[in-house]
Amino acid sequence: METTTTIKPTFDVSEIRKSFPILEREVNNQLMVYLDNAATSQKPQAVIDALNYYYSNYNANIHRVHTLAEEATAAYEATRTTVKDFINAKSTDEIIFTRGTTEGVNLVAYTWGRKNITEGDEIIISGMEHHSNIVPWQILCNEKKAVLKIIPVSDEGELLMDKYKKLLSSKAKLVSIVHVSNALGTVNPVKEIIDEAHKAGALVFVDGAQSTVHLDIDVQEMDCDFFAFSGHKVYGPTGVGVLYGKKKILEEMPVFMGGGEMIKEVTFEKTTFSDLPYKYEAGTPNIADTIALKVALDFVTENKKDIIRNHENDLLKYATEQLSVIEGLQIIGTAKNKVSLISFVIKNAHPQDIGVLLDNQGIAVRTGHHCTQPLMKRFGVPGTVRASFAMYNTKEEVDRLVSAVKKAIKMLT
Ligand SMILES: *Cc1c(COP(=O)(O)O)cnc(C)c1O
C-alpha cells in the first residue's frame, strides 16, 4: 500500500496581520484580541485605501458622462463583476447592490412576497434564523394571512431534516434559510434543503451573511433562487451588501423603491422601469463602499479561500479543545459541520459579565442573544458568549481567550 502525506499549504498569519492596521491597537493596555468577526470583520489597508483614493481622486455620481463619473461608474460596475464571479452567478444582471443582508431579505419580502404570497400560503424558515430573516417574513405573513412555519433545531444545533421534509407541502411557497448560523456556527445542508423545496414547488432564499466569508459560494450549483450577504462581514465596508436572484425571477418581480436610476422614462401619467439590475437600485447608491467591496473580495480570493478555511478550522478545533475542558463551560452548538465560531455559556455567570471581564483583558467577543432570540429560548439560555475567528486570528489569541475566560470564571463564581 502506498502512503501519501498531504502537506497543508502554509498560511503565514503574521504576514496577513500586517494587512490589517487595526490589529496593532491596544485595548485596556493590552494588544487587542478581536474575536467578534461574526458581527463585523476588520478591514485590510487596501480596502481603507480604496475608499480614500475614491474620495481623493474620482468622487462623482455614477452613470453620468464626464470623466470622473465614467471612472466611478467603471469601478462601481467592476465590483458587480467581481461579486458575480465570487458567488458564481450567471450574469451581472443578477447582482443587486443593497445596504446589506437585512435589506436583501426585505427587498424580496416586499416585492416578490407581496406579489406572490396570498392567504393560506406557507413560508418556511428555521429555528436558528437571525431576526433579519424572521421579521420581514412575519410582517408579510401578517399582512397576507399567510403562515410562518419553523424547522426545529436539535440539541446539537442542527436542523431536523425529517421534520423539514414533513413541513413541505403544496402550500409552501418559500423557504428562507440561514446558510451558516451566526449564533451556533452550524453549516446547514442548503443543497438538500433547496432540492427538497424545489420538488415541492417552493422557492428558496439563502441568508449568506455568515457563509460568504468562510465557504465557497456557488449559487448556480446550490440552485438557490435568492442569496444575500453583507460586505462588512467579508472584510469590506459597512453599508453595502448584495442580493443575488435568478434573472427570470428578478425580471418578473415588481420594483422595490422608486426614484432616480431605476427608471427608463417618467411622465406624470406613467413610469417605465430600468432593466436589471438597475431596476432595484433606486437613488444614488453607496458608490465608495461598493467600489471598496471589490478590493475586499479580491483580497480574500488572492489569499485563497481554502487555505484561509484550513487556518480557521485549525483555530476552531484548537479553541474547542481548550474551552470544552474548562469546568462549568458549555459550548452551545456542537454540529458536525461548523465554521470557526464558538458560542458558550458558563454556569452561574451571565454572558454579559463574562464579556466585560474579557474586554478588561483586551479581548473583544460578542455577548447576548446575537439577534436570534427564538434560538436562545430553544436552548434555554438568555444569551451566550461568542468568539468568532477570522483569517487574521492566531493560536496565541485563542490562548489569551482561554486564560481570560478562566480568570473571569474565578472572579464571578
Ligand atoms: C449579520 C447577519 C445578518 C444581518 O446582516 P446586516 O449586515 O446587519 O444586514 C443576517 N443574517 C445573519 C446570519 C447574520 O449574521
Key traits:
413 residues, alpha/beta, Aspartate Aminotransferase, domain 1, Aspartate Aminotransferase, domain 2, 2 domains, seven-stranded mixed β-sheet, four-stranded antiparallel β-sheet, 15 helices, 17 strands, globular, binds pyridoxal-5'-phosphate
How many separate helices? 15
Strand order of the largest sheet: 4-10-9-8-7-5-6
CATH superfamily of the largest domain: Type I PLP-dependent aspartate aminotransferase-like (Major domain)
Q: Span from first to last CA?
A: 55 Å
| Mean residue pLDDT | 96
Give the ligands present. Answer: pyridoxal-5'-phosphate
Low-confidence stretches: none
What does this structure look like?
This protein has 413 residues and is an alpha/beta fold. The chain has two domains: 13-37 and 304-412, Aspartate Aminotransferase, domain 1; 48-301, Aspartate Aminotransferase, domain 2 (3-Layer(aba) Sandwich). The protein is built from 15 helices and 17 strands. It has helices at 13-17, 45-58, 67-86, 101-116, 135-144, 161-167, 190-199, 211-214, 219-222, 247-252, 287-302, 305-324, 351-360, 373-379, 395-412; strands at 26-27, 30-31, 33-34, 95-98, 122-126, 147-151, 172-178, 203-207, 226-230, 241-245, 263-266, 271-273, 329-332, 341-346, 363-364, 366-368, 384-388. The strands form five sheets. The chain has a seven-stranded mixed β-sheet with strand order 4-10-9-8-7-5-6, with helices on both faces. It has a four-stranded antiparallel β-sheet with strand order 13-14-17-16, with helices on one face. Helix 3 packs across helix 11 (287-302). The radius of gyration is 22 Å and the shape is globular. The chain starts with 12 loop residues before the first helix and ends with a helix. The model has no long low-confidence stretch (mean pLDDT 96). It binds pyridoxal-5'-phosphate (PLP). Residues 100-102, 130, 132-133, 178, 182, 207, 209-210, 230 line the site of pyridoxal-5'-phosphate.
